[in-house]
C-alpha cells in the first residue's frame, strides 16, 4: 500500500436552521456543502481501490 492522499480540514460544511411555522411547530432545515478538500479527495481516489481511515482532530 502507498499513500495517495494526506490533508487535513473540513470535508463537508454542515448547517442547521430551525424555522418556526405559523401553527407553532418547528421545522429543521439541514444543508451540507462539500468543500474544496472533498473534491480533491474525490479526484485523488477516482478508479482506485482504497482503504479509508478517518481521524477526528481535537480542537
Overview of this protein structure:
By secondary structure, the protein is α+β, with helices and mostly antiparallel strands. The chain is built from 1 helix and 2 strands. The protein has one domain. The chain has one helix spanning 36-45; strands spanning 12-20, 26-34. The chain is elongated and about 55 Å long. The mean pLDDT is 92.
Largest sheet: 2 strands, antiparallel
Structure classification = alpha+beta
- Roughly how many Å apart are the termini? 30 Å
Question: Stretches where pLDDT falls below 50 for ≥5 residues?
Answer: none
Number of strands: 2
Helical percentage: 10-25%
SSE inventory with pairings:
Blueprint: E1 12-20, E2 26-34, H1 36-45
Antiparallel strand pairs: 1-2
